Amino acid sequence: MKMKLNITERFTISGVLPSINDFSTLKIVDEINRDTGFSESDHKKFNIRAHKTSEGIRTRWGAWSEEEIEEVRKKDKVKADQMEADNPEFAKHIGEIKEIEFGDKAKEIVKEALVVLDKEKKLTRDHFSLYEKFVQDKEE
Q1: Where are the domains of the chain?
Q2: Cβ neighbours of residue 126 under 8 Å, at least 6 residues apart?
Q3: 3-class state of residue 52 by DSSP
Q4: What confidence tens digit (pLDDT) does each residue in 26-38 have?
Q5: What does the pLDDT look like over 39-93, one tens digit per residue?
Q6: How confident is the model at residue 35, as a pLDDT?
Q7: For residue 129, how many C-alpha atoms fall within 13 Å in the half-sphere facing its CB?
Q8: Does the predicted TM-score (pTM) go above 0.90?
């Protein structure tokens, strides 16, 4: 079954998948991660980067924030100016959708992980659309 996933869903899905399980399940988990992951060209197109916060390292994508630009400007004005100039290009791609094939077992693995999070009351807003697609079988 083909499913359309946005950038947030592609990042979020890897965080819900099991890291401990039987061999065949983990092989499918690896396939899901490979299919939903990001290529080198995706990293450039979406401006994917690590960002240090008070909670630790977070992943960001899309346009540079004012905070990021100002931090760079302290050291390198030319680079900061380039970051500002690049922002419209990054913003253009932020809503892109990738169509990904999920077999029955892959869909079941994702669904089961989301159901467990729901039962444990550990779902976050980032999980909502994945929950609707995999558990409630709603397609956008």
Answers
A1: 2-134
A2: 8, 12
A3: strand
A4: 999 999 999 999 9
A5: 999 999 999 998 777 888 888 888 898 988 999 999 999 999 999 999 998 888 8
A6: 97
A7: 14
A8: no
Which residues are bridge partners to 6 per DSSP?
Answer: 97
- The helix/strand/coil state of 76 is coil
Phi, psi of 22 (to 5 degrees): -80, 165
User: How many other β-carbons are positioned within 10 Å of the β-carbon of residue 78?
Assistant: 9
- Identify residue 104 by its one-letter amino acid code: D
The DSSP result for 73-120, as a single string, is: HTT-HHHHHHHHHHHHHHHHHTT-EEEEE--HHHHHHHHHHHHHHHHT
Q: Which two tokens stand for residue 114?
A: 């989301």
Residue with tokens 């065949």: 24
Which two tokens mark 113?
């992980």
